[in-house]
Design a protein that fits this description.
With about 300 residues, the chain is of the alpha+beta class. It contains 13 helices and ten strands. The C terminus is likely disordered.
Length: about 300
């Protein structure tokens, strides 16, 4: 089934990497600098403290800690504990004396990162806070069908062929579930993710993502949302941060970027596929959005550049 959130993640071309599942025995502390990837931590069992911007947050069994843009932070057994650099902690795992391998009460952590392999459609990511704390996915309940966590933990404990690949895919699902749960819990916030969770705006966003090439009007989108034109336009702009027309244009040009990246269509045909009657008007709009012409963008993709 197609929907706007799935479309966004397909455009991001997400790739996950799970570093480890380990017990950290008190006293312990791990410090992460600003990173180029999104970082996440899952509290499998036990308790820890997260320090972000000098503020302490308490996390326990089943909590997910997400840093969508790799924001610097510390994980500690208790507030104020000294912290070892995360890179040094990781390096110690391949030595005879792994960090925090012995001591007092333990917490079990799963840690990893998410890489956005296409950096163009990151509006949703940029609108997210630097730190997201989602409380207690159920790790033990056999009926926790809405959470991938039990499957992820079980697969990490498995030595079966293909388990590494399965873990990476499950971690990607965990990210989507975490963001969906976050959006459900803070409906008063603004941003694309909140728009997707909105019962009315979500219908219009779905139509845009399913048919970016269609000659959609604000009136049509408002009808899809079950709202008047003026109320819809005002609400869309206040939540999403763009007017409906601006958002539709952005989605059309991001779709064009995907088609240029695929390399299978000539540029005039791509222009038509994303709703432009003129190759010239398409090229002008594409350059305004992407900072380069369609042909230059295509050459950059072929040479391994991101194009942004």
């Amino acid at each position: 089934m197609n929907d706007a959130l799935s479309d966004i993640f397909q455009r991001l071309r997400l790739k996950s990497c799970v570093y480890f599942q380990r017990d950290f025995h008190a006293p312990w502390g791990m410090s992460m600098d600003q990173g180029s990837f999104a970082q996440f931590h899952l509290i499998v069992s036990g308790y820890c403290v997260v320090e972000v911007d000098g503020n302490s947050h308490h996390a326990s069994n089943g909590d997910v800690l997400l840093f969508p843009r790799g924001y610097p932070h510390k994980l500690l057994d208790k507030a104020g504990s000294p912290a070892m650099a995360g890179a040094d902690v990781m390096a110690s795992f391949s030595t005879p004396s792994p960090a925090f391998d012995e001591g007092g009460k333990a917490v079990r952590l799963v840690c990893g990162h998410y890489e956005y392999r296409d950096t163009s459609p990151v509006m949703m990511i940029n609108q997210l806070p630097g730190f997201i704390h989602v409380k207690a996915f159920d790790l033990s309940s056999p009926t926790a069908s809405d959470s991938v966590v039990p499957l992820l933990i079980r697969e990490m404990d498995s030595n079966k062929p293909g388990s590494g690949s399965i873990v990476e895919h499950l971690a990607e699902i965990l990210l989507i579930q975490t963001l969906r749960e976050y959006a459900r819990g803070v409906p008063q916030s603004a941003g694309l993710l909140m728009g997707l969770a909105d019962a009315q705006l979500g219908k219009a966003l779905k139509l845009i993502h399913l048919k970016p090439e269609a000659p959609l009007t604000v009136e049509q989108l408002a009808r899809e949302a079950g709202m008047s034109r003026s109320a819809f336009s005002d609400r869309f702009k206040s939540v999403i941060g763009l007017s409906p027309k601006e958002y539709l244009t952005k989605m059309r040009l991001l779709t064009a970027g995907d088609l240029l990246n695929g390399g299978g269509y000539p540029i005039p045909q791509i222009a038509e596929k994303v709703g432009y009657n003129s190759e010239i008007s398409f090229a002008r709009a594409f350059k305004r959005e992407m900072g380069m012409t369609p042909s230059k963008y295509r050459r950059g993709q072929k040479s391994g550049m991101t194009g942004v």
